[in-house]
Amino acid sequence: MNADAVSTEDPSSPPTVPSTVVWCCGRPYVLEGRAGRARWMGTDYRGRPEALSSAELQRRGWSHRRAS
After folding, report:
1. Strands of 27-34's sheet in order across
2. Own/partner long-range contacts of 46-52 (Cβ < 8 Å, ≥24 apart)
3. For 25-67, what is each residue's pLDDT tens digit?
């Protein structure tokens, strides 16, 4: 691979690899790959299951690391 090659993936976009864990609003979310559509699964502030799209996760703000 050329070291000068420019990545086409937007660094502000969430990852696309299934089973990846990211943090959003202080809670972990895991990417579940489903036939036709992937979704980010986590819990809301009451501990109830919550599914987010990649666009929603990006809008809310996400990180690879938990905020301290």
Report:
1. 21-24, 27-34, 37-43, 49-52
2. 52/24
3. 999 999 998 766 889 999 999 999 999 999 999 999 999 998 7
The token pair that represents 33 in the structure block: 């790959």
Which pair of structure tokens corresponds to residue 45? Answer: 């502030």
Q: Which of 43, 42, 68, 40 is nearest to 52 (CA)?
A: 40
- Tokens linked to 5: 């090659």
Q: How large is the greatest C-alpha to C-alpha distance in the chain, in angstroms? A: 47
Task: Report the C-alpha gap between 29 and 15 in whole angstroms.
Answer: 11
Phi-psi region of 45 (alpha: psi -120 to 50; beta: other; left: phi over 0): alpha
